[in-house]
Amino acid sequence: MNNYLLFFIALIPIVWLMVSLGALKMPGYKTCSITLVITIVLAILVWKMPISQALTATLEGSAMAIWPIIVVIIAAVFTYNLSIHTKSMDVIKNMMIGITTDKRILVLIVAWGFGGFLEAIAGFGTAVAIPASILAALGFNPVFAAIICLIANTTPTAFGAIGLPVTTLAKIAAIDPATLSYAVAIQLFVLIVIVPLVLVMLTGKSVKAIKGVMFISLASGLSFAVPQIIVAKYMGAELPALLGSIICIIVTVTIAKIFYKGTAAKDKVHISLKEGLMAWVPFILVLTFILATSSLVPAINKPLATIKTTLQIYNGPYAKPSSFLWIANPGTLIILATFIGGLIQGAKFKDIVKVFKNTCKQMTKSAITIVAIVSLAKVMSYSGMITSIAVVLVAATGGFYPLFAPIIGALGTFVTGSDTSSNVLFGPLQIEVAKNLNMSPYWLAAANTGGATAGKMISPQSIAVATAATGIIGAEGKILKATLKFCLVYVAILGLIVFFGAKFFAI
Questions:
Q1: CA distance linking residue 453 with residue 391, whole number of Å
Q2: pTM: predicted TM-score of the whole model, two decimal places
């Protein structure tokens, strides 16, 4: 069959997702389920995928969606729900407005700084779920809280989950992770500075909203971007987002306390150090557990990484066993940290269990959405549908391909919901194209990673996480329409950076 015809047929599930969510305003769990059926039918009829392979690809996607993605989302929302139950969220809220009541600055601290930090240590939706729920508790409109956290959770995902997207791509493509990290950090530098400005303008509903907070907005972006590029160049992929986000939080909060202290609540509640620490105990334990069991601490990470189940689920070509880590994954660790944190805060064990059960029930529709979207991603990948889209994009653009390279990365994340998965799908393709165009393979591989961060804000999987966390199931279409225009601008800026920067990066 003609490559261009295959290209347009392969776009059908993606176009349907866009139309059904954005124009028809169908809830995510319904439209994603329908899209999964459409994808399976097309894979079998057009790409001649055997039925058994289509079904086992779907089963593999479902298993991966449940563990760890859905478990992580349940864990993140459980942490928030328990903090409501123990009243510690009231303390956190008072601490935040004790720094500032200016919503523009709160967004910089919670969605940008704290969200970037959560992405750096955990990933898998925590950076959207927890900040969005905190913003909602601070009085933000839940839909707006979801949108703002999705836009904030873009650039940090390149080095999310202790650098997983970059280290995975370097491994499968057999290239140096440190050089790739540096290329990614260079490409994202400008966007890291721009995103906080955009968040402030969105919060104030006007370009003029930047007035009065330009200094702190620029400082918030630069304090993330500068450390990230230095760490990426000299230390590799594991720490750029982690150190960048920590320095960003310190700088943003310090500037708010010194230069914007007039915006603090006039009747702010005095909170002792002990009260503050008790309120943040679950989050502190989450951080401690995830860092202590990460690849940064091999003595703990390696033994825990052996506690897993490995299964061969998909039975077609290029099949690889699927591994499920039972302890060394963010979901398990966050749930354990929250249980322990709740007990330390004085909650009864039976009450904590009840909150956990209610959280699981609350996540039912979101779980259906995520199972469907990860399953269809697997079917599109294994059947060759995604390759059909990418090959035509490469052939049609020729020497201008670097302008469009980030689009392929964004497409990968839109479908899979994961920067890492997008890199696995399209990273090798980008490197092959680089060789044909006589360009640096690191530069185009980085373009895939950067583009993948853009796709994060429009991915149905990410949107499902946001709606679940803020209790607005059914608002997926409204959120997609809001984030799509920002995604297009983001990809366009990145495309220009990749195109014009290619001649200066010759490694």
A1: 21
A2: 0.82
